[in-house]
Design goal:
The complex is a heterotrimer of chains A (390), B (169) and C (547). Chain A has 14 helices and five strands. With 390 residues, chain A is mostly helical. In chain A, the strands form two sheets. A three-stranded mixed beta sheet of chain A has the order 3-2-4. In chain A, strands 1-5 form a two-stranded antiparallel ribbon. In chain A, helix 7 links the parallel strand 2 and strand 3. Helices cover 40% and strands 30% of the residues of chain B. In chain B, the strands form two sheets. Chain B has a four-stranded mixed beta sheet. Chain B has a four-stranded antiparallel beta sheet with strand order 3-2-5-6. The radius of gyration of chain B is 23 Å and the shape is elongated. Chain C has 547 residues and is an alpha/beta fold. Chain C folds into four domains: 170 residues, Rossmann fold; 80 residues, no CATH class; 170 residues, P-loop containing nucleotide triphosphate hydrolases (Rossmann fold, 3-Layer(aba) Sandwich), CATH 3.40.50; 86 residues, no CATH class. In chain C, helix 15 crosses helix 16. Classes of the chains: A mainly alpha (390), B alpha+beta (169), C alpha/beta (547). Chains B and C meet through helix 3 of B and loops of C.
Amino acid sequence: MRKIFDIIANNAVPAVFIIISAFAIPLSGYSASYLVQELLTRIGRNSFLILSLLIPIMAGMGLNFGMVLGAMAGQIGLLFICDWGIVGIPGMVLACLIGTPIAIVLGIFCGHVLNRAKGREMVTSYILGFFINGVYQMTVLYLMGWIIPITNPTLLLSRGYGVRNAVSLLGIRGILDNLIPTIITGTQGTAQFVNINGGKSFIMMQLPFLEGSIRIPLATLIVIALFCIFIVWFRKTKLGQDMRAIGQSQSVADSAGIPVNRTRIIAIVISTVLACYGQIIYLQNMGTLNTYNSHDQAGMFSIAALLIGGASVSKATIANVFAGVILFHLMFIVAPVAGKNLIGDAQIGEYFRVFVSYGIIAIALVLHAWRRNREREAARRSLRGNKGDE
Amino acid sequence: MTMFNEYWEIVRTFLDAYGVSYELAGLIVLVLIWLLLFLGRGLSFFRFLMRWYQRLIIVTGLVALGFWLFYVGREHQILLDNKNVNGLKALEQVNVSINGGESAELMPGDRDMRKAVGPEFEVKAEILDDNGEVVSTITKTVKIGCVKNMTISLPALAAGSEDFTLPLK
Amino acid sequence: MGNNPLLRLEHIGKEYYGNRVLSDISFDINAGEIIGLVGENGAGKSTLLNILFGMPVIASTGGYEGSIQIDGRKVSFTSPNQALAHGIGMVHQEFSLIPGFTAAENILLNREVLNASSMRYIFSERVSTLDREAMNGRARSAIHTLGVNISPDMIVSEMPVGYKQFIEIAREIDRKNTRLLFLDEPTAVLAESEAEILITALKKLAASGIAIVFISHRLSEVKELCGRILVLRDGRLITDQPSYTLSTRQIASLMVGRESVRREETPEVTETVSTETDAPKKKKKIRPALKVEHLWVDMPGETVRDVSFEVMKGEIFGIGGLAGHGKLAIPNGIMGLYPAGGTVKTFGKKLTLNKPRAALGKKMAFVSEDRRGVGLLLDEPLDWNITFTAMQTQGRFLVGIPYIFQMRNDLAMRKEARKFIDQLSIKCTGPSQKAGELSGGNQQKVCLAKAFVLRPDILLICEPTRGIDIGAKTLVLDTLKQYNKENGTTIIITSSELEELRSVCNRIAIVDEGKIAGILPASNPAEDFGMLMMGQVRNEEEGEFSA
């Protein structure tokens, strides 16, 4: 009985999402190919950001709300390449190169702070995100164009310094997604796609039962796959092993001579740098950079998606990431339309999406605390001996 | 050696563009080297040397990669100018395309702008007469380096001069 | 080189803030020897280990005296890692294993076998991947040395407790240079059969040249395993002799240390013996004041599992035992401060557990071992402290109409406080002084006064003399005896100081590993209690103990 209960309790969140989606998909009236297309786009857009959360969880530091630091570093890289007018894949790579040292510095800072707040990493990193946001805004709003050389007038506010709120990333828009143009199409869709793609060559696959066509962001997916391989490899390294050890028991790891604090900092640095790349990939897909808001939601939505995928504060796998992206974004796509069709108001879907993402985080945190208490209680009950069962 | 020169050229353009003195750049490189030495403390000499050496290569490689990306990824604005210049008369009509992109149709006195990515680009100009017949076609590969903007004087280009970027020397 | 012992300690001594805990300890350990180190809590064992392992606590409290030599060379460790580098291994009392890791991962924790990585210079060795096969092989051979059969792939959290102990020892064995192994109570968590396997394994290890120091309270195991036995008492090395020259009983008495002669020296004990003889007679007439059956208490670090005893009316009952074995949990559990189960009856009526108010309502009073935390409101004046519980639970020291409007009767409170200040001679400026400003002994007296104000039928006291000086100690104990005599109150004292219990109590129960090891009249010789504390199985001398 307890086992069944445990299974349900451990998978409650994904189960609820699957059920809601199962109702909402027919209500929305979207075709399968549209949904698949949207989901593929969103997997490409968001997975990298979410994957960057895995390593701190492995090191027992919980959900790294501090990943917005990495997102900011990525945006600074993007601002520079926009100013210099570097476009295409070189532009993206250069943005990553510029973002990396910034993310490393921010990560080291964040790691040091979190080492002073052991056991309260999540709330600390969350608030730290706000603090660094302040520094970021000061940098972008006052220093850029004044101390930091930004010359491109399309980036700057009319007063001569400070970056505009909306920056067009036309130069790198969709550049990775369309690097290897790939399409899956039904029997009719080909001609339509040839028009869109301007007659350039592309990889095509035909699935006769499919209606319409689906463009696949193949290069992005390859990058994400490489990243998954990196994580699998990382788990096998000594560093990964040390992080797992620290995640389970800091004191034991410490007494075995593992440099606990240093390893924790490394975990945060890796996460921050990866979040930086994740944000660049995300914005590459979006095509515009909201200088002062884009990073805000990055952390919250990534964490919500990961938790919806069935991860917990102390355990997360690559499968959780993809399950989470699919479920969370499926909800995002269908909920507004389903809400509109059902109640006649698209706002209900928007409301639902915000409500759900914050609610899920709250529930996951409460569940985590509750489960930890229960485990502790169970461990102590075993100490009481037989008489304890009376 | 030519490759080194090319790189030095890029670095210099970069430094000049931001008014960074060469002394400061040298200082930054020294600080980077010191940082590497600092990070390698507490290791056996061989491992220290290997780490220092390999890290130096990696960091140098990344910085070089950055400059290279700057070089090949830079987008330039190419201004096409069809005005009288240095005694050359503006062309009746000319269709210009950059790197095989969308062509621009310029009448006398017209100016237009096209974009090009990378250190060099190919300009193709079709010169037309009054009747709209193609008189001649000029194809030229232009090296632009890291310069952001370039203005091409089409009459000068049509005249076959090597000096066709405005302002003319 | 050959003449030098593996480890030689010369005149080791240590003081903590003027409090001497070790003096003049000297002994040698040779390769392949197994040495038993025994002693009561507080005898100085852990301090000795801390010195040997270079724990930071030693250096930060002023270092130690004497010298340590390894292979004839003087060493002085400033961190445990240095001790490890010199081949000294330690298996701790509490498990330091990672629960979610496999046996192999734990045995090779931070000593993993690595595949060479091309990136090891750019980053560090830590980016190399683990060689699982080699790790499992090494783990298997280390486990094999111990003579047990545990799969290297088994997850530690799924193992029985005994296995975990083996994994810990295997970890030390795997360390290539380990020559001296300290085992702190390794058998405490093992079942008898597992303990036997461990002992066999340790003998085998010793035969391979590793010296072992075995610290345990189970004297029969110590005697079976060890070639030499060292007894520590009050920071001194009492004896260092081959184990075949000692019986477990002798070891126990050496540890406890007070020879039976001492009993005649202290008149109080003989006095209590006379009162004690009355108790069995009363037993037939009156129901017991407190009857505890199958009590379990879940108090962290002091868990008791199954405790049954009876206390007669008017008796002073002592509960003794080593720290961490659960004696403190008994009064705390009865008073409802920690989750508890079983049945507790006061004067034949069942007591609701887990509700402190229920216990207080039955006219029971409790003096906590945690004076400053639970016992006193440190920032409040004495009269408040003394009368607070009585006001809350019995509605005394209040004026006004009950349930509607009541207020404190400050006058009565002060009067009562003054009465107790005189009676217990509490040194203070008056009833309005703050409790936090008093000395430890006087605070303890305030705690007693607070309990006395309740006019309890049963008084439970934990560690009445902890942290107070000798003069105050006798005063507190005398107060208790006097109160017992005057009011016929049943008193249950829990204390880790056996002598103190023997001087006031009629009967003493000894708690060992969460169970009552035995209940003896206080007049029994000290070594009897010592035997009980050390987990000497009762059936050895059954007849003598079932008094």
